[in-house]
Amino acid sequence: MKIIECPRDAMQGISQLIPTVLKIIYLQQLLAVGFDTLDCGSFVSPKAVPQMADTAQVLEALDITASSTQLLAIVANVRGAEQAAAQEKISYLGYPLSLSETFQQRNTRKSIAEAFTELISIQDLCGRQKKTLVVYLSMGFGNPYQEPWQVETVLDFVQQLAKFGIQIVSLSDTVGVAQPADIQYLFQHLIPAFTQIEFGAHLHVQPLNWEAKVAAAVAAGCTRFDGALKGFGGCPMAADNLTGNLATENLVAYFENNAVPLKINKQAFESALTLAGTVFTS
C-alpha cells in the first residue's frame, strides 16, 4: 500500500506565507516517516500560487539521502515541467488534467484539448529527463458546473492517457462529491483494463464520509492513496469548509485496523503530526 503525503496541497491555499525555513523543517520531518512519495511543491506561476514560489529553494535545502521517499512536484505547463525536471531530487512530475472544461480553464487557463497537447510534450520531456509523469484527473467524480459526467468519460480519458504511455493516473475527487459506488465501479473497471497503469485515489472528504470512500477504493483494488496530515487543504472550489484533504492519520489508522502492512516509522509520524499543527497555524 502506497501513501502519498501532500503538504503542497495542504499549503497552497493558505494566504499567509509559511516561512521557507519552516517548510524545510516540516518536509524534512515528513521524509523521515517513510511515505512512498512526498508531494512537496509546485513549479507554477508565483502570481497564481504565491505559497509555492520558494519550491526550488526548499528543494535545495532538503536532505533526501537517508530517506526512501520519492519527491513529486506539480506543474501546469511545459515551462514549469522544464524547471521541475531540472531538479535532480524530483522523481515525479504531477500534471492536473480535468474532466471538466470549466475547471480546466479556471485551473490552468487552457482547454482540455490544449491541456492534452501540453501533456504530450511534458511526457516526452519526462522520458528524456528520466522522470515519471503522474496525471491527476481532476473533477474525476463529478463537478459543480452542471457539466455532464459519467464513468464512461473517465474510461475514455484513461484510454487516451494509455496511448501516450502514462504510467500513473490518480483519480481526484476535487470537490468532494464522489460516491462510494462510483469510486468502486471506476477502480474495478480501470485496474484490470489498464494493467500497465498504476491508479491512485486523491480524495477530498468530509469528517463523516472519508471511511466509506477509502473502503470502496480498497475493495476495488486501489493501492495508492494521497493524504495530508490533519486533513489540511483541499480545493477552494468545494465551497464547503468541511471538505478537505483525506487526513493521513485516518488513512494510516484504517490500514492498521484492517491489517494492511505499512512501512511507516510511527515515532517520526507522530512528530510530523505534532509539527503540522505549528506549520498550519504559523
Tally of individual helices: 11
Helix and strand content put the structural class at alpha/beta
Report the principal-axis shape.
globular
Our measurement of the CA-to-CA distance between the termini, rounded to an integer number of angstroms, reads 32 Å
Strand content: 15-25%
Helix content: 40-55%
Are there runs of 5+ residues with pLDDT below 50, and where? 236-240
Order of helices and strands: EHHEHEHEHHEHEHEHEEHH
Mean pLDDT: 93
How big is the Rg?
17 Å
The strands making up the biggest β-sheet line up spatially as: 8-1-2-3-4-5-6-7-9
Number of strands: 9
Largest sheet: 9 strands, mixed
Fold and architecture overview:
This protein is 42% helix and 19% strand. It is an alpha/beta fold. It has a nine-stranded mixed sheet. Helix 8 (180-193) links the parallel strand 6 and strand 7 (198-205). Helix 2 runs antiparallel to helix 11 (266-279) and helix 8 (180-193) packs parallel to helix 9. It is globular, with a radius of gyration of 17 Å. The two termini are 32 Å apart. Residues 236-240 have low confidence and may be disordered.
